[in-house]
Design brief:
single chain; mainly beta; Immunoglobulin-like; 7-stranded antiparallel beta sheet; 4-stranded mixed beta sheet; 1 helix
Length: about 160
C-alpha cells in the first residue's frame, strides 16, 4: 500500500506542476492605437514618388496635406536630450511653394492627456531630390509613450498616432 501512495503523491505533484498557469489578474499596459499605413496606400500627386523616401515609412494624408508615418507605427531609438526624444517631421501639400511652411502648424499630445505637450520648432523648408520641396518641423517628445500628432495647413488637417520607444 505504501508504494501505491508514493506513486499517487508523485503523480499528483507532476500533474500539478505541468498544469496550465492560472491567468494573472494584474493589470496590463494599455495598447497604443498606432496609425498604420492605409490600404489602399495614399499616393501623393506628381512629382512625388509613389514610394515613401524610406522602406520603413509610408505616405499618409491627402493631396491637401500629407506626411510620412512609420510602417509599424513606432519610432525607436530617437536621439534624446534635455528636451526629450527628437524627431524631424516632413510635410507636403499639392502645389507647394517656398514660404508655405509659415502656414503649417503641428501639435501633439500624449494619448490620454488633453494638453498639448509636444515641443515644436517653427516650420522651415527642406528640399532634396527624393523629397522635392517639403515643410520641416523639428519636434521633441518629452517622454516615451503613445503620441497623437496633428498637422494643419490652411483648411487641411492630418492626424496620426505613433509610439515613441
Amino acid at each position: 500500500m505504501k508504494k501505491f501512495n508514493l506513486v499517487f503523491i508523485i503523480s499528483v505533484f507532476v500533474l500539478t506542476a505541468c498544469a496550465a498557469p492560472v491567468a494573472s489578474t494584474a493589470p496590463t499596459p494599455n495598447v497604443c492605437p498606432v496609425t498604420l499605413p492605409p490600404d489602399p496606400p495614399f499616393i501623393p500627386p506628381a512629382p512625388h514618388s509613389a514610394q515613401a523616401p524610406s522602406p520603413s515609412q509610408a505616405w499618409y494624408g491627402t493631396p491637401a496635406l500629407w506626411t510620412t508615418i512609420p510602417t509599424d507605427g513606432a519610432w525607436r531609438g530617437l536621439p534624446h536630450d534635455g528636451q526629450g526624444y527628437t524627431q524631424k517631421l516632413f510635410w507636403w501639400h499639392e502645389g507647394m511653394t517656398l514660404g508655405d511652411e509659415a502656414k503649417l502648424t503641428v501639435t501633439g499630445r500624449l494619448v490620454g492627456s488633453a494638453e498639448s505637450t509636444l515641443i515644436t520648432l517653427p516650420a522651415t523648408n527642406a528640399s532634396a531630390a527624393d523629397i522635392h520641396l517639403a515643410m520641416l518641423v523639428g519636434v521633441d517628445f518629452p517622454t516615451q509613450g503613445c503620441w497623437e500628432i496633428t498637422g494643419w495647413y490652411e483648411a487641411a488637417e492630418v492626424k496620426f498616432v505613433v509610439l515613441i520607444q
